[in-house]
Amino acid sequence: MKHAVEQGLVPGPRMKISITVLTITGGHADGWMLSGNEFNLFPAYPGNPDGRCDGVEDVRKKVREVLRAGAEVIKVCSTGGVLSPRDHPEFTQFSEEELRVMVQEAAFRRGVKVMAHAQGAEGVKNAIRAGIYSIEHGIFLDHEAIELMLKHDTFLVPTLLAPLAVLEAGEAGGMPEYAIRKARETIESHSDSIGRAYKAGVKIAMGTDAGVMPHGTNLRELGLMCNIGMTPMEAIVATTKTAAECLGWQDRVGTVQAGKLADLVIVKTNPLADIRSLEKPENIAVVVKDGKIVKDRRGN
Description:
The chain is an alpha/beta fold. Helices cover 36% and strands 13% of the residues. It has helices at residues 2-6, 56-68, 96-107, 121-130, 143-152, 161-171, 177-200, 220-227, 232-239, 241-247; strands at 21-22, 74-77, 114-120, 134-140, 155-157, 203-204, 264-267, 284-289, 292-296. The strands form 2 sheets. Strands 1-2-3-4-5-6 form a 6-stranded parallel β-sheet, with helices on both faces. A 3-stranded antiparallel β-sheet has the order 7-8-9, with no helix packed on it. Helix 3 (96-107) packs parallel to helix 4 and helix 6 runs antiparallel to helix 7. The radius of gyration is 19 Å and the shape is globular.
C-alpha cells in the first residue's frame, strides 16, 4: 500500500511503516485468546514476520526479520495493554537488555529508530533507558519516568482518544468485557499522567492509535489534549510541527516554509476559537498533498 501510494496508483497519506509490532509471548499483540484460539488485531499478511519474540537473541533475529520485510521504524510493546486478554497496561514486557538490542539493531540500518507502546511506568522507563525515542500512551507515568523523558529528549504521544474509543465501542457491543474494564481503569490516570508530563515540558506529539477508533475521527484527540491543559495552538503545533519531528520528517513537512512539501489542510472554522470544530469532517474544507488538492469541500 505504501508503494502504491508513492507510485500514484492510489490516493493516500504519507506513511512510515513498522510492518509488525514486537511482543513477548503472552504479551500485548500476542493474539492468543482465553479459548486457546488466536484473534489478531492485525491478521497475518504473506511475508510478514510474526512479532512474538523472547530473549536477547530471538529479539535480535526478529528485528532483522522486520527490517528485511521493509520496516522503517521498529514498534515494540514494552508493557501490556487494554485489548489483550492476558496482561494489563501496568505489566512490564521485555527486559531493558532486550529493548537495547532492538535499538542497536535498528540503528545499524542508517538510523532507524524504535518506538514503544508503553503504558506502565516501569515499561516506560525501561524503554527510555534503552534508547527508544518515542513513548506511545504513557498512561501510568511516575515522576521518574517524566524526568527520564526530559533528560533523554523523548517524545510522548498521548493517544488520549484510544481508551475512550474502547469504551464507546464497548457501549455499542463491539469490545470484550476485559477491554472495557481495563479502559475504565485507565481513563483518569491517563489524563493525569499526560497533564503532568505536559506541565513538566515533555515533548508531546499528537497521535491517535487510529484503528482502535474509526478512521476519520482522529482529530477528536486535539480537544482531549486541550482538556489536560494544552492551549489550542499548542495542540495544533503538536499535531503538525512536533509530530513531523517525531517522524524524523521535520525537513519535509510540519510547518509552512519555503522548500518544504506543500501538505496543507484548510478548515472552515477557526480552531483557535473552537478546537473541537475540527472533529467534524465537514469542517475540513481542503486537503492539499504535495501542492495538489486531493479533497475539496468548498462547494458543499
